[in-house]
């Protein structure tokens, strides 16, 4: 008799367990077809890259811990990859979508990405990582919302807008690539666009508060963002909940994202939304419109000006971004419960960018090595033990000072669970933006001139925010602290795409000699194989 009762109970229990797991970690399925199409962002028809017929691409909306199953069908005539900028790909560098981890999707072929937004919230982006495709589109917003059971440190806004802001060229991505391949730097852009348009418009009700998720999706140019007559309350930066300071305008560098709340507390009319380039001799400006639904008048008056002071103003603002120590992020525990400032780094890595001419061509380098991609992704070469693709420590962990530079495939060996200090030393008279895949990091210091050990006295070891992309000011340094808790092969690159393309990047190999699925997932059964990995068994 007992047994008859037991079976239904077990069945009910197993159903209940399955449903609990599903409720927490949903699976979301997408098919994205990548094609060329025409758009007129600057009034003349241009060939752009569409995803499911859209430019920019569809907004990918997820909840913390969602499993994203996304089939990309490549209808371009060139191999193609998407990378998920700021998604950490926990234990899963197989899905990072860069040439060091993935074979590109051949024309008229497909690849299904499978990744989880594990323990993350915030405003992110995705974009093509191959060639100069990003200059033609194929990019979009990627927003990760908190689970319903997790508190968020602000009231739910009345609406939520994603703004993809970036420099733009009339020149096609192929011609831009040819310019770079010929040994010249990228030319100055033609314009700045907001959501692929010259005049984007956003509507809201007077008296209500709206969220604006603003990302710099451009190739090379920082911008300052502002809304005529309105203050912006900064609430989240690349997965960090920050102290909710009020700003008139914000500097946003290439590859970065910020989330602000704006209350429509002005007279009922239309107001300019403005993004203008920073650290450029010529200032390009994009204007959009914030439209009150009860508006009595179109936009009017001069377009509000941005800050005139460059480095000093921008550094002061950067230092004002602070981690909200008492707030949680994707998990229930407060952000400040991780006391990053009390951990002694296991090693210091100093990375100096440079702009050498190699074999008569303009290149960009890190510690004297200008990166060249291999036919076999580094991750596959590592997994299959394929010799001759890369060598560990093919780049020094500090600049030699010789000033010489050479081409190479730079891989820096690091140990899983190390806690490292990385100094970005910028001796060029141009602003830099650096991004690390697989991680976020604490931005603890900005300083002028040469970094020295004494520079550590100026670090913020209490409430620096974590983010995935940091600016480095001209002739200056920026220091980050990184907890290497995510095993894999991870791209550390200039977010400025022409510099990245011409060699300002490397890979961190975060290695644990004990192979365990607790540390890293196995190679996906559908992984594309190319180069020397062709024909290898997946398992």
TrEMBL record:
<dbReference type="Pfam" id="PF07731">
    <property type="entry name" value="Cu-oxidase_2"/>
</dbReference>
<keyword id="KW-0325">Glycoprotein</keyword>
<protein>
    <submittedName>
        <fullName>SKU5 similar 17</fullName>
    </submittedName>
</protein>
<dbReference type="Pfam" id="PF00394">
    <property type="entry name" value="Cu-oxidase"/>
</dbReference>
<dbReference type="InterPro" id="IPR011706">
    <property type="entry name" value="Cu-oxidase_C"/>
</dbReference>
<dbReference type="InterPro" id="IPR011707">
    <property type="entry name" value="Cu-oxidase-like_N"/>
</dbReference>
<dbReference type="InterPro" id="IPR001117">
    <property type="entry name" value="Cu-oxidase_2nd"/>
</dbReference>
<feature type="domain" description="Plastocyanin-like">
    <location>
        <begin position="161"/>
        <end position="294"/>
    </location>
</feature>
<comment type="similarity">
    <text>Belongs to the multicopper oxidase family.</text>
</comment>
<dbReference type="GO" id="GO:0005507">
    <property type="term" value="F:copper ion binding"/>
</dbReference>
<dbReference type="InterPro" id="IPR034273">
    <property type="entry name" value="CuRO_1_AAO-like"/>
</dbReference>
<feature type="domain" description="Plastocyanin-like">
    <location>
        <begin position="34"/>
        <end position="147"/>
    </location>
</feature>
<feature type="domain" description="Plastocyanin-like">
    <location>
        <begin position="375"/>
        <end position="514"/>
    </location>
</feature>
<dbReference type="GO" id="GO:0016491">
    <property type="term" value="F:oxidoreductase activity"/>
</dbReference>
<dbReference type="Pfam" id="PF07732">
    <property type="entry name" value="Cu-oxidase_3"/>
</dbReference>
<dbReference type="InterPro" id="IPR045087">
    <property type="entry name" value="Cu-oxidase_fam"/>
</dbReference>
<keyword id="KW-0732">Signal</keyword>
<feature type="signal peptide">
    <location>
        <begin position="1"/>
        <end position="23"/>
    </location>
</feature>
<dbReference type="InterPro" id="IPR008972">
    <property type="entry name" value="Cupredoxin"/>
</dbReference>
């Amino acid at each position: 008799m007992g047994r008859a009762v037991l079976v239904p109970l077990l069945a009910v229990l197993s159903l209940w367990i399955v449903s609990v797991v599903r409720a927490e970690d949903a699976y979301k399925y997408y098919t994205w077809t990548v094609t060329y199409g025409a758009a007129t962002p600057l009034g003349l028809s241009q060939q752009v890259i569409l995803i499911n017929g859209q430019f920019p691409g569809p907004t990918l909306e997820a909840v913390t811990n969602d499993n994203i199953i996304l089939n990309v069908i490549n209808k371009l005539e060139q191999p193609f990859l998407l990378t998920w900028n700021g998604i950490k790909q926990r234990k899963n560098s197989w899905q990072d979508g860069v040439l060091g981890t993935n074979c590109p999707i051949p024309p008229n072929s497909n690849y299904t990405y499978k990744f989880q937004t594990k323990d993350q919230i915030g405003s992110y982006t995705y974009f093509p990582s191959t060639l100069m495709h990003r200059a033609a589109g194929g990019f979009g917003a990627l927003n990760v919302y908190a689970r319903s059971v997790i508190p968020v440190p602000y009231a739910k806004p009345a609406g939520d807008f994603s703004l993809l802001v970036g420099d733009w060229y009339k020149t096609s991505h192929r011609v831009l690539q040819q310019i770079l391949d010929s040994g010249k730097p990228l030319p100055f852009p033609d314009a700045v666009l907001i959501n692929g348009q010259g005049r984007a418009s956003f509507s809201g009700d007077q008296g209500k508060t709206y969220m604006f998720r603003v990302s710099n999706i451009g190739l090379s140019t920082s911008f300052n963002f502002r809304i005529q007559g309105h203050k912006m309350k900064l609430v989240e930066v690349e997965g960090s909940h920050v102290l909710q300071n009020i700003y008139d305008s914000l500097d946003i560098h290439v590859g970065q994202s910020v989330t602000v709340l704006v209350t429509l507390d002005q007279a009922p009319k239309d107001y300019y939304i403005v993004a203008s380039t920073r650290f450029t001799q010529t200032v390009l400006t994009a204007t959009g419109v914030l439209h009150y639904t009860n508006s009595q008048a179109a936009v009017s008056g001069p377009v509000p000006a941005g800050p005139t002071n460059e480095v000093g103003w921008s550094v002061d603002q950067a230092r004002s971004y602070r981690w909200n120590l008492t707030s949680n992020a994707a998990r229930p525990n407060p952000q400040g419960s991780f006391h990053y400032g009390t951990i002694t780094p296991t090693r210091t890595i100093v990375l100096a960018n440079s702009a050498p001419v190699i074999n008569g061509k303009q290149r960009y380098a890190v510690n004297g090595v200008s990166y060249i991609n291999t036919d076999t992704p580094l991750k596959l070469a590592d997994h299959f033990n394929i010799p001759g693709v890369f060598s560990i420590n093919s780049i020094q962990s500090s600049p030699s000072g010789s000033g010489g530079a050479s081409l190479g495939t730079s891989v820096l060996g690091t140990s899983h669970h190390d806690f490292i200090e990385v100094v970005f030393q910028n001796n060029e008279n141009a602003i830099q933006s650096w991004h690390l895949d697989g991680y976020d990091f604490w931005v603890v210091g900005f300083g002028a001139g040469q970094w020295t050990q004494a520079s550590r006295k100026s670090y913020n070891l209490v409430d620096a925010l974590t983010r995935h992309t940091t600016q480095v000011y001209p002739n200056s340094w920026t220091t980050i602290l990184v907890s290497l808790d995510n095993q894999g092969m991870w791209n550390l690159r200039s977010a400025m795409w022409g510099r990245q393309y011409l060699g300002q990047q490397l890979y961190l190999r975060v290695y644990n000699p004990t192979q365990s699925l607790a540390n890293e997932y196995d190679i996906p059964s559908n992984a594309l194989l190319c180069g020397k990995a062709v024909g290898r068994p997946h398992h």
